[in-house]
């Protein structure tokens, strides 16, 4: 009987020791206002999440995790949080982010003409990628090759259907290095797109207010799922069409982008400088 009791207590102790770490907090600006949809987690892993519209977040980490967690946002500099700060901390973290130092804007002159950049390939018949409300932070897009300086005016993509209420996506444009192992976001302000509930295909045209000039290079243009909730009477699903040219997908907010043989068919409209 004593041996059974000892074994039972040992199992309880082991279970408690193996519990995940739960890190709660709020991400704010210098002024104390909420920083919405910031990414926070251990870079290059599945351990990541997004802050809500109110800046609040809850992150689950393995018990053995001693890695630094990093908070990022397109408008702010990265914030690193060491393990000593988030482990065994019963209080909610307040993560304060500093605005990015913006580079001096280069003004281009000379001749320019209206142009459209696309690299989507043939449409996959019946092929779709599916997002649900469990996939917040997921990202997928298209690779765009830029041969001359290009001023971005509009971004275009489509959805096949959407049954997620208050669905919101963010747009990101990353410059890739030659090895396609480093993705640098060239944007300084977020672009959000609200996707209406619809059972039919919709084309989405997003006007870009920020001055974005793309230098010659290879870019990953992506949409990220940042918000939405399940409708009570329907399955929570958003479908995108797929096209036969390689691109990347990110299966968690902080995961390394993974190459895939299809893309979302994103296009860019604007002006090409000569």
Q: What topology emerges from the helices and strands here?
A:
Elements: H1 2-17, E1 21-28, E2 39-41, E3 48-50, E4 56-61, E5 69-73, E6 76-81, H2 83-86, E7 93-96, E8 112-118, E9 123-131, E10 139-146, E11 150-159, E12 161-162, E13 164-176, E14 183-185, E15 191-195, E16 202-207, E17 213-214, E18 217-230, E19 238-243, E20 247-250, E21 258-260, E22 267-273
Parallel strand pairs: 1-7
Antiparallel strand pairs: 1-4, 2-3, 2-5, 5-6, 8-22, 9-19, 10-18, 10-20, 11-16, 11-17, 11-22, 12-19, 13-14, 13-15, 13-18, 20-21
Would you mind describing this structure in some detail?
This protein is mainly β. The chain has two domains: 8-96, Sandwich (Immunoglobulin-like), CATH 2.60.40.1120; 112-273, Jelly Rolls, CATH 2.60.120. Helices cover 7% and strands 49% of the residues. It contains two helices and 22 strands. It has helices at 2-17, 83-86; strands spanning 21-28, 39-41, 48-50, 56-61, 69-73, 76-81, 93-96, 112-118, 123-131, 139-146, 150-159, 161-162, 164-176, 183-185, 191-195, 202-207, 213-214, 217-230, 238-243, 247-250, 258-260, 267-273. Strands 10, 13, 14, 15, 18, 20 and 21 form a seven-stranded antiparallel β-sheet that branches. Strands 8, 11, 16, 17 and 22 form a five-stranded antiparallel β-sheet that branches. The protein has a four-stranded antiparallel β-sheet with strand order 3-2-5-6. The longest helix has 16 residues, at 2-17. The chain is globular, with a radius of gyration of 21 Å. The N and C termini lie far apart (86 Å). The model is unreliable at 4-17 (pLDDT under 50).
């Amino acid at each position: 009987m004593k041996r059974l009791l000892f074994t039972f207590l040992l199992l309880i102790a082991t279970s408690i020791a193996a519990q995940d770490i739960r890190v709660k907090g709020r991400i704010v600006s210098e002024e104390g206002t909420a920083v919405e949809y910031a990414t926070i987690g251990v870079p290059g892993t599945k351990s990541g999440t997004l802050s809500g519209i109110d800046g609040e977040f809850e992150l689950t980490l393995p018990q053995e995790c001693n890695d630094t967690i990093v908070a990022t946002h397109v408008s702010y500099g990265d914030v690193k949080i060491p393990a000593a700060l988030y482990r065994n901390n019963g209080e909610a973290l307040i993560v304060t982010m500093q605005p990015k130092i913006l580079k001096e804007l280069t003004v281009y002159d000379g001749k320019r003409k209206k142009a459209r950049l696309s690299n989507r390939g043939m449409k996959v018949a019946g092929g779709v990628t599916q997002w649900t409300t469990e996939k917040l932070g997921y990202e997928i897009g298209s690779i765009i090759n830029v041969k001359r300086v290009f001023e971005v005016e509009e971004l275009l993509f489509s959805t096949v259907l959407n049954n997620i209420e208050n669905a919101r996506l963010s747009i990101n444009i990353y410059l890739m290095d030659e090895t396609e192992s480093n993705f640098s976001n060239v944007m300084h302000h977020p672009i959000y797109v609200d996707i209406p509930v619809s059972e039919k295909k919709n084309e989405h045209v997003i006007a870009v207010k920020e001055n974005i000039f793309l230098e010659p290079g290879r870019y990953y243009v992506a949409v990220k799922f940042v918000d939405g909730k399940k409708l009570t009477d329907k399955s929570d699903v958003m479908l995108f069409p797929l096209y036969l040219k390689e691109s990347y997908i990110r299966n968690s907010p902080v995961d390394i982008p993974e190459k895939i043989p299809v893309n979302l068919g994103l296009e860019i409209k604007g002006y090409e400088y000569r």
